[in-house]
């Protein structure tokens, strides 16, 4: 199980996202450094654009919607950010501009509804996800990425790393019903982190999508550590062979 997921201490979670004195979403030093260390072309730039620029672009439109090239970029980010499935990019590109605008308009309109009632809230989530899944190549995970652009606390991104960190979600299924379970677990964690935060600024800092980013960061911290160990081990073996030949 993820060590991070088992903790309800905000400082432990923050250590996977940024330095302790840096809680600005645009200055997520640790999270972004791990993205950069993956050495995937354009991933950091795409990540910055999706998290820091695209929300304002979408919200400047009335009603909110995405254009085809923007959905293509969201899919590209998703594939680089997680498991690469090239067929999905081809399917996304097969959608027309009109269908993408129409589906995202309808989904975003529903996504802006709010309810303190758990059953009604989950019904809103389910309806918005289902509309986006009408598009070719869009499943619940991609739909969640699209919706998190405007409502990051209501629609956390259904990433592989976050899903695999939560014991109650195993075995993993990429269905709408499983996404609803994921949302509930993430929101419970957000509430605990907010409750355990010492001041109001810290409480506001924690959103569902930020928790997902921390879980991603934890997973790739482990991956990068393993790569370094393998590299060091390989270097040691090479040095040993050279000494033997001498």
Keywords:
mainly alpha; single chain; DNA_glycosylase
Helix percentage:
55-70%
| Strand runs, count | 0
Number of helical runs? 12
What is the rounded Rg? 20 Å
**Major sheet:** none
Q: Which structural category do the helix and sheet elements fall into?
A: mainly alpha
The coarse overall form would be globular
Rounded average pLDDT? 86
**Number of structurally distinct domains:** 1
Can you tell me about this structure?
The protein has 246 residues and is mostly helical. It has one domain (10-231). The chain has twelve helices and no strands. Helix 2 (29-37) packs across helix 12, helix 3 (43-59) packs antiparallel against helix 4 and helix 7 packs across helix 8. The longest helix has 38 residues, at 208-245. It starts with 9 loop residues before the first helix and ends with a helix. Mean pLDDT is 86; it is low at 224-240.
């Amino acid at each position: 199980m993820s060590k991070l997921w088992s903790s309800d201490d905000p400082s432990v979670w923050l250590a996977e996202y940024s330095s302790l004195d840096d809680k600005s979403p645009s200055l997520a030093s640790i999270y972004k450094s791990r993205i950069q260390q993956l050495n995937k072309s354009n991933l950091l730039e795409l990540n910055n654009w999706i998290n820091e620029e695209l929300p304002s672009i979408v919200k400047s439109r009335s009603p909110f919607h995405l254009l085809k090239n923007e959905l293509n970029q969201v899919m590209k980010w998703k594939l680089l950010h997680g498991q690469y499935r090239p067929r999905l990019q081809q399917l996304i590109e097969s959608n027309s501009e009109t269908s993408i605008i129409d589906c995202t308009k309808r989904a975003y309109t529903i996504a802006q509804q709010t309810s303190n009632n758990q059953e009604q809230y989950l019904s809103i989530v389910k309806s918005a996800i289902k509309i986006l899944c009408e598009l070719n190549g869009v499943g619940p995970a991609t739909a969640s990425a699209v919706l998190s652009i405007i409502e990051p606390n209501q629609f956390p991104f259904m990433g592989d790393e976050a899903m695999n960190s939560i014991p109650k979600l195993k075995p993993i299924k990429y269905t709408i019903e499983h996404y609803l379970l994921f949302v509930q677990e993430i929101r419970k964690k957000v509430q605990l982190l907010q409750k355990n935060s010492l001041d109001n600024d810290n409480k506001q800092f924690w959103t569902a999508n930020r928790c997902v980013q921390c879980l991603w960061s934890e997973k790739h911290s482990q991956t990068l550590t393993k790569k370094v160990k393998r590299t060091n081990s390989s270097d040691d073996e090479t040095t040993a062979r050279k000494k033997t030949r001498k």
